[in-house]
Specification:
mainly beta; about 250 residues
């Protein structure tokens, strides 16, 4: 796209967002724009900056999005759920909304002179291609959208994948309902009191406590301040690489 075309797109999106802000400000919706990455199978959306792995096996499927810097919040927003709809573009928008979980980061590119939708201060969703094509035509490439946080509805309980070694335990917390984004995790062995874990990256939480041979319980707190305690989730013979299921947040 030449410079003039790019300027036109930016001005168009800017006008759309201003108009949206004025008409929707009292309805709980916020303004942003959206693109997509990866193919229809979603292979490129696996793994990612939130620390999740195979999103299909972990229950997220392809109902996922990467977030720009303005939304990602250094990974604190990982696991949050958003309802999104295309808006104010009759040429490209499709009817309906989607609900997606934040599982990745759309990094800024300060060396590129144009088309940096994930650079601050833009609020941007880089959707999986199947999700983008539910709200807009493929050829659109980028569309203005409205979005809002919504409760996450997950099947089954909160999952704890235990990694690390005998001297360092790393726990991936996923499939979290309710607010979705975990802000605090505590762990307790059958022979210890509650131990504060620290965030390593994304939704991976760590401790140097030596808990081999002890059953493990977890307290998980989300951004809305709600906490769910799952007692003796991992039995005394738990294994590294094992996944254990606890209680779930109401949604």
């Amino acid at each position: 796209m030449d410079g003039g075309g790019f300027i036109f797109v930016v001005m168009f999106l800017g006008l759309c967002l201003v108009r949206i802000a004025g008409s929707e400000s009292n309805q709980g919706w916020n303004v942003a724009h959206a693109t997509f990455y990866g193919d229809m199978q979603g292979n490129e959306t696996m793994q990612g900056a939130c620390g999740y792995g195979d999103l299909i096996k972990q229950g997220y499927g392809l109902k996922t999005t990467a977030l720009s810097t303005a939304l990602f919040n250094n990974g604190l927003t990982c696991g949050a759920c958003y309802e999104i709809r295309c808006y104010h573009s009759k040429q490209w928008c499709l009817n309906g909304t989607i609900i997606v979980t934040a599982t990745n980061f759309c990094p800024p590119n300060y060396s590129k002179p144009e088309g940096n939708w994930c650079n601050p201060p833009w609020k941007h969703f880089d959707l999986s291609q199947p999700m983008f094509r539910k709200i807009a035509l493929y050829r659109a490439g980028i569309v203005p959208v409205m979005y809002k946080r919504v409760p996450c509805r997950k099947s089954g309980g909160v999952k704890f994948e235990i990694k690390g070694n005998p001297y360092w335990i790393l726990v991936l917390v996923y499939n979290v309902g309710g607010a979705g984004d975990v802000t605090n995790v505590k762990i307790r062995g059958s022979g210890t009191t509650w131990i504060q874990m620290s965030r390593n990256w994304g939704q991976n939480w760590q401790t140097a406590a030596r808990l081999i041979g002890q059953s493990m319980s977890f307290q998980v707190t989300t951004s809305d301040g709600k906490m769910v305690q799952s007692d003796d989730v991992a039995p005394a013979d738990w294994k590294f690489g094992g996944v254990y299921e606890g209680k779930q947040f109401p949604s």
